[in-house]
Specification:
The protein is mainly α. The chain contains three helices and no strands. The longest helix is centred in the last third of the chain and has 24 residues.
């Protein structure tokens, strides 16, 4: 059985040559949720969107980090996790997960 050869360029983002569909899906979902959370956190009235998308981005990114197999996946997951966390925390500061819907 032939073993996958490492990328000869020595890139930090080199893969192991094997497919990782679950990890790649979690990476893409985390990046998308992080972008949504970060952008929507810039608008005070969108705190529900930013806090929920940030929370789900943190959860998917955390699980993605747990099962990641390559540096490329880990690197992009950290980018998505950071954007999700910023969006989540700003969304929480602007009104939270249920702000205006429960209580008050």
């Amino acid at each position: 059985m032939a073993q996958a050869q490492p990328n000869p360029t020595g890139s930090l983002l080199a893969t192991d040559g094997k497919p990782h569909p679950l990890q790649d899906t979690l990476m893409a979902v985390t990046l998308f949720l992080g972008a949504v959370a970060f952008v929507s956190a810039q608008f005070h009235g969108l705190h529900l969107l930013s806090s929920w998308s940030g929370l789900f981005g943190i959860l998917t990114g955390g699980y993605g980090q747990f099962i990641s197999a390559t540096t490329r996946e880990r690197f992009l997951l950290i980018i998505g996790l950071g954007a999700s966390a910023v969006g989540f925390f700003l969304g929480m500061a602007h009104g939270g997960l249920f702000g205006g819907l429960v209580g008050y």
